[in-house]
Design brief:
The protein is of the alpha/beta class. Helices cover 47% and strands 18% of the residues. It has 21 helices and 20 strands. The strands form five sheets. Strands 11-12-13-14-15-16-17-18 form an eight-stranded parallel β-barrel, surrounded by four helices. The relative contact order is 0.06.
């Protein structure tokens, strides 16, 4: 409370293992051990002004009892009057030097940079804000990721220092370290150059059911304990982040929060914060000192973003709030800010969010991120050859500065903003869907008009399926070639339908998360993400997979035919499968125009999926009914057996996903958090 009178409490742990090996004779003028016959040990502390190298205060020598192979703890108190306070604009450092003496001679010495700050949270204009050394403080933060890729430690230190110098030139006053423990040298540089640092415990986007497991909770607790003991005494460190993007108010999250918050409070005097999604509901502020709101750029309407933040301010009272924001870019994209993945759009986005921060008088913002960095899983939302490169930085991997660097620099320093080119970006619509869709439509129309038997079979299979299946059972002549062409039509209908959906949501982060649940493997994800950006190749791939599935279903039916007396050939089961699937052709007119309709009515996605699911169930029923007729088996047995078989296959797939990838937990997280 009184910055003119500071108490320094130093706790020193002394291990006798080192002292035991030190044989130092007493100095000539030392009489401390005279007549005792035993060595005398003492410890003292000194505070040195690093700017002037002058001793500010020195403690008395405190004697302690030596014991072999023991660790003892000594506490040393010193007082300083009117110290110079540390701030980002004036990073004034002192040095604490601790000396251990044996018979008056120094046998060990330890030094550490220290400083004095007065950072508080006060109410200002009906809003809670930070005050640094008595004046308002606004966070001008940036996330930092170490990715030096340098084997030499000295070269790595050089790169870290160059980054810190560049961040200071940007006008930032804070860096955020997320997903990993920072390099100790990075903390030293923050102390030296005047950058606050906040460190997150890596509890990011974890489903609640996984968060409560002993493996994860104990691991996070151990990580928290280690980073606190390693970094807590640094002046630049001001806060610990306990979580990011975890579902609020779940019992598992409450238990985790209580555990970690109690651990931090018991071992640290730093602030505690957490990061929530902008769409998070029922936000709890218990135990935390301030809140970060993550703006995920899913909503391009920035006025709507401002409205949502205002709602959060109404919901979260009594806590300072900062905005966490950022976006991915395609590095070589200079199409102007009308292109949502361009370099200019990143700069425009930074302008807009910082304007909102100033208008709402928030505690500040933290941008994601300073530099590009490598990931452990591929990214879909960028059409970029380096799928494992996160290109969210205002500088690239080589520290080349993007337009967003200068835009952010102008905002941080209240300078004139650089001009941005709007460009003339327009989302392209693949014409291949229309061309191939019309071609497939012409094929089916040609078959219906040219071949009377095909026309009869087509309408009979749709409206009088029992009679049609009876013809198959009675070995009536049904052209295999025509069935093969119908299979191609069905396959391409599904190819156009799914390719349209995949391509429309190619830049959607929610879709990417959903695909990660369905396709957990890295290589498969890579191939799928590449195909998403190649609509024609995706269309052909889905068509081929659909045709193969037709053959697989026909093969399975042929396998089950060994249990019946009728002579069933693969040709028969192939015809059953293909002609049972004719309702899928209903999707063809929709598939041709689906991509364009989604631009006008995005919610038609759910109607399209509903139609597909209904058709899939209908076709499954048609196949089972056809099997009952052709195999000459009681329908109830076929329905029961077929349902049991499908259920078994589904159960096996779900079990594999659950055991290997915790599919239930991530699916629940997806439904409760991301879709909301």
């Amino acid at each position: 409370g009184d910055v003119n009178n500071c108490l320094i409490n130093t706790k020193v742990k002394i291990s006798s293992a080192e002292a035991e090996q030190s044989e130092v004779k007493p100095q000539k003028n030392d009489t401390s051990s005279a007549g005792t016959g035993k060595a005398q040990y003492s410890v003292e502390a000194i505070i040195v002004d690093k700017q002037t190298n002058a001793t500010v205060v020195q403690s008395n020598q405190i004697a302690f009892q030596y014991q072999a192979e023991r660790t003892i703890q000594q506490s040393i108190d010193m007082r300083i009057s009117s110290p110079t306070l540390w701030s980002p604009s004036n990073p004034y450092l002192y040095e604490l030097v601790v000396k251990i003496k044996k018979n008056g001679a120094i046998i060990d010495e330890y030094s550490k940079s220290i400083a004095f700050i007065n950072l508080t949270i006060n109410k200002d204009d009906n809003q809670y804000s930070f005050f640094l050394n008595g004046t308002p403080f606004v966070m001008k933060g940036i996330e930092y990721y170490e990715n030096c890729n340098i084997s030499s430690y000295e070269q790595m230190k050089k790169q870290l220092e160059q980054d810190i110098v560049l961040i200071k030139s940007l006008g930032a006053n804070l860096i955020r370290v997320k997903n990993f423990a920072p390099n100790p040298y990075l903390i030293e540089l923050c102390n030296k150059y005047g950058l606050f640092i906040i460190i997150d415990i890596p509890a990011n986007c974890i489903p609640s059911s996984i968060l409560e497991t002993d493996e994860i909770s104990v691991r996070l607790r151990n990580i928290a304990d280690r980073i606190i003991s390693s970094f807590n005494s640094n002046v630049s460190l001001i806060a610990w982040g306990i979580s990011s993007g975890i579902i609020e108010n779940s019992p598992e999250f409450k238990a985790y929060s209580k555990l970690i918050i109690n651990l931090i409070r018991a071992n640290s005097d730093k602030f505690i914060y957490k990061e929530i999604d902008l769409s998070a509901k029922n936000v709890s502020t218990d135990g935390v000192d301030f809140i970060g709101i993550k703006e995920n750029r899913e909503n391009p309407n920035l006025s709507e973003v401002k409205f949502q933040i205002l709602n959060k301010l109404t919901e979260i009272k009594g806590k300072p709030i900062f905005i966490s924001y950022g976006m991915l870019v395609i590095p070589d994209n200079n199409n102007g800010y009308s292109d949502p993945l361009s370099i200019e759009h990143q700069a425009y986005y930074i302008q807009s969010i910082n304007t909102i921060i100033k208008e709402l008088n928030l505690a500040g913002g933290v941008i994601w991120s300073f530099n590009d960095y490598e990931l452990n899983s591929p990214i879909m939302i960028l059409n970029h050859p380096e799928q494992y490169l996160c290109t969210s930085g205002i500088v690239d991997m080589n520290r080349s500065q993007r337009k967003s660097f200068f835009t952010l620099q102008a905002h941080f320093n209240s300078e004139k903003e650089p001009l941005l080119n709007a460009g003339s970006y327009k989302e392209s619509s693949p014409i291949s869907y229309i061309v191939i869709g019309i071609a497939v439509s012409l094929i089916i129309l040609f078959l219906i008009n040219r071949f009377r038997r095909f026309r009869e079979y087509f309408f009979r299979s749709m409206f009088r399926p029992y009679n049609f299946y009876a013809d198959i059972r009675d070995q009536r002549i049904i052209s295999t070639v025509q069935s093969f062409l119908l299979a191609i039509v069905i396959a391409f209908t599904l190819g156009i339908f799914f390719s349209s959906l995949f391509y429309f949501y190619k830049s959607n982060e929610t879709a990417q998360y959903f695909y990660k649940i369905l396709i957990p493997g890295g290589f498969c994800q890579e191939m799928f993400y590449k195909l998403v950006w190649m609509p024609e190749m995706m269309m052909i791939t889905v068509s081929i997979i659909s045709f193969i599935l037709i053959l697989i279903i026909a093969a399975i039916l042929r396998g089950f035919s060994i249990f019946v007396s009728n002579r069933i050939f693969f040709k028969d089961t192939f015809i059953i499968t293909v002609w049972s699937g004719t309702p899928f052709i209903i999707l063809l007119p929709l598939s041709i125009i689906l991509y364009r309709i989604l631009f006008i009515f995005p919610d038609i996605l759910w109607l399209s999926i509903a139609i597909f699911v209904i058709l899939a169930f209908w076709i499954t029923y048609r196949i089972l009914r056809a099997v009952a007729v052709v195999f000459d088996v009681i329908e109830s047995r076929i329905y029961l057996g077929g349902t049991a078989f499908i259920g078994l296959i589904t159960l096996i797939i779900i079990t594999i996903y659950q055991l290997n990838f915790s599919a239930f937990a991530y699916t629940k997280y997806f439904l409760h958090n991301l879709l909301n």
